[in-house]
Write a structure and sequence with these properties.
single chain; alpha+beta; Butyryl-Coa Dehydrogenase, subunit A, domain 1; Butyryl-CoA Dehydrogenase, subunit A, domain 2; Butyryl-CoA Dehydrogenase, subunit A, domain 3; 7-stranded mixed sheet
Amino acid sequence: MTDTEHLAAARRLQPIIMELRDRFDVDRTLPGSLVEELHAAGFFRMWLPRAIGGAELAPLEFLEVVEELSRQDGSVGWCTTIAAGSARLAGAMEEDAARTVFGSGEGVLVGAFYLAGKAVAVSGGYRVSGRWSYGSFIGCADWVASGCLTAAGAPLLFLCPRSLVEVIDVWDVTGLRATASNDYRVKDLFVPERLTIPLVDFQPPPRRDGPLYAIPMTSVFFSSVATVAMGIARAAIDTLVEMAAAKRSAGSLVPLRENALVQIDLAHSEALLGSARAYLFEEFASMWRDVVAGRPITERDRAKVKLAACHAARSAIEAVELAYQSAGGAALRYGSRLERCFRDVNVAGQHVMLSRQGTLEPVGRVLFGLSPGTARL
C-alpha cells in the first residue's frame, strides 16, 4: 500500500463502522469482524518494518489515518494507534525476536509501558511479576509489552504472548468504552532476555536503521493520542453542522444554524481545531525533517512536540464541548453522535500523557533552559 491507499482504506471503512457502532458501548470491545477488517487493511502494520511485512508509513501519513478512523469512532482510532504504534518497537528488537512477535506482519502487539512490574534476573532472562492498568485492545492482541524495573533499578520492557497474562475486566467507564482497556497481570513469569527491550530516558534504543525508529517513543505517543482527540472533535463539528440545518431551538422558527451564538461557537470550534492541528503537525513534521537529515533530537525539540500534542488535545476537548452545548437537548440522548463524542474526547484527554500538570510544567522548565525533571519528555 502507498500512503494515499492507507487513508483511502480508512475512509472505506466508514459504512462498516457506522453499522456496528451501536454495539461498542454495550460490548465494551470492538467486534471481531471489525478487527479483521482493520487487520486486513494493514492498519496494525503501518509502523512495522518493511522487512517483516510492514509499511513504515511516514509519520504525518500515519497521523492522518488515525485522525480519520477517530473521526469515524474514537475507540476505533484509539485501538488502531495503540496497536500500530506498538509495532514500532520492532525497530528496537533483534531480527529474530521481532519475527517471533510479528511473524511476517500478522502479530498484534499492545501493552502498558509504564514501570509497574518487577523483573528479577535469572539464567537466560528474567522472572517478572506485576499488574498494569489501561491495557487498551489487549483482548484482541497476540503479544503484550509491559514496563518494569529490574532489582538494580534499570527500566525495561518485556514482551510475552497475550495468552500468558491474566486479563482483569475492569473497563466500565464513560467513554472510549470499546477500547477494552482492562487491567492485566503476570506472576513469576519467565521472559527470555531476547524478548526484553532496555529503556534509556524512557526511550527504546533503535536497533534498526531508518528515521522512523529514531523518533523518540514519547513524541510518537503524545502525537498519536492527541490525534485521536482531534479526529473526535472533527466528528463533533461535522455533526453539529449537519444537525443545525434542520433542528430548531424551542420557540424558534428558524433552523439552529441561523442562531448567531451557534454561528460564533462553530467558528470558534473550527479555529480551535484547525490551529491546534496545524501546530501539532508542523512540530511533528519538523522533528521528522531533523531525523531524516540525521540531526540529533534535542530536549527542546521533544518539549515542543509534547506541548503541541497537549494543546491539540485540550483544543479538541474545547471544540467538542462547544458543539455539544450548541446542539442543546439534541446532544443529551445516550448513544447520539455528539453525546458519544463528548464522552470519548474527555476520556482521551484524561490520559496522563496529556495532562496539563504532567505536560506543561516540564515543557516550561525546558523553555526556561532548565532540566525537564522527567524522562517522559
